[in-house]
Amino acid sequence: MLRRVVAVVAVVVCAAGVVAYQATRPARAPATPRVFVPSPRFFLDFSPSFRTSIADAYYLNMVQYYGEHARGDGRFDSLPQMVDLVTRLSPHFARANIFGAFALIDAGRPDLSARVLRRAFSENPGDYRYPSYLGFFAYRYGKGKTKDVVAAHWYQKAASIPGSPSYLTRLAAVLMGKGGETQKAILMWGQVYSAGDKYARQKAVVGLERILPKEKQARMKAVAPLYGTMPKADFEALIAELFQGYGQ
Amino acid sequence: MKQLVAITINTFKETIRDRVLAVIVVFALLMIAGGLWLGSISLGEQGRMIKDFGLVAVTGFGLIVAVFVAANLVHKEVEKRTVYVLFSKPVSRAAFITGKFIGLCGTMAVVLAGMGLFLFALVWIVAGQASGMVLLAVLMIYVQLLAVVAVTIFFSTMGSAILAAVLGICVFVAGQLSHNVLALTRLGKNPITEALSWVVYVIIPNLSAVDVKAGAVGEQTLAWGQIGLWVAYLLAYIVVALALATVIFRRKEF
Prior knowledge:
The complex is a heterodimer of chains A (248) and B (254).
Chain A: H1 2-23, H2 40-46, H3 51-71, H4 79-89, H5 94-106, H6 110-123, H7 129-141, H8 147-159, H9 167-178, H10 182-195, H11 198-211, H12 216-223, H13 232-242
Chain B: H1 2-16, H2 19-40, H3 46-79, H4 82-87, H5 93-127, H6 132-156, H7 161-176, H8 178-185, H9 191-203, H10 212-216, H11 224-250
Helix pairs in contact in B: 1-5, 2-3, 2-5, 3-5, 3-6, 3-7, 5-6, 5-11, 6-7, 6-11, 8-9
């Protein structure tokens, strides 16, 4: 009987020891557990058949890392390497590319963010989201006088991809006008007008009114390049709207 | 032919009844279902996570089954001395090896079909659409593992079961790095190392020529011609491995 009790006590003590050991571990976990992030080359060379699985594992790691530090100290020291690793191992992983790009903005690295998006766009030329985000980032974080035009170019690229939303052309036209590229802006508003619905046509007329000269002859000269770039009926309808108050 | 069919059916029945196999399969299904949890922390990428980690689980557990069962196939018969009874009848060594291999192929087919269909159903439920690529990927994993089975049977005719299992796993790993071995042939100017690397490159089965897992998660478009060629290559490899196993097994006296 005593032997049995001793055995049971010994087992219970051991079980308690096991639980206690594990329960005290989280407090001892390092504050920044991801100091070392391997290079994408390493995985591409040594586990080509499992590269997407490794990318997924690191993607989960990256999301967790971002969440921890966004709520905590706001430092994202390992994030650029993590984003680079995941997006190079799995270049068609759209969410990783986009999440990574936005996370890098939070990490104060818009340059790396743009690099990730540019690479993603070269790997996925049929996805309009990459150039449209590049346009947004160029507009929001770009510097100098040309930032509007750079953003407009990206939006223009995005708009040219089949399946892209129609507002992208309007955005590109607005930014072209803002950036001083009046001729290009006029042509783009012409595209918006001929390809859009009633709402888009109204937007195009308002957009053109903003950048076209008020004087009749100068206005006629400015809209002349539109002739031939859009269907004749649309061109005539647009001209009629733009010259409404000008008389014969 | 009759003997071959009898050995095949017997091997299939023997291996499929193994309780360890059932435990491994249940564990594999749990691991595949574990992808659900990973999916829940992936910011809306549940489908991709389940596919990717599920296929890794299918590969891993399929490899365990393939290697450990294949390593024991021939040894069990020798240890239990049933091989003496078998070869006292008009059974050729080739029929013995081939029957064992085909029987295990059947067991592997059942195991992988179970895991594959479970993964397919899980992806369908979670992602909301059926993914035929998952089934294709499982089929390709099956063909890969058959090559590993053939090589493991070959090793088991030469040494102990444990050694055969370890070497089988090594061949699987080496097969994933086949292109690296090829790269070695181009390093340096030493013709001996170059020739040696080339021989190793040819001997090791090329298990990474087609990446169907990446295709299943939409990372890569698959070239059907390449897949067909690769499958034909692996089948040819299996034939050679089994032929060599038979040659070695013929030399053994029972």
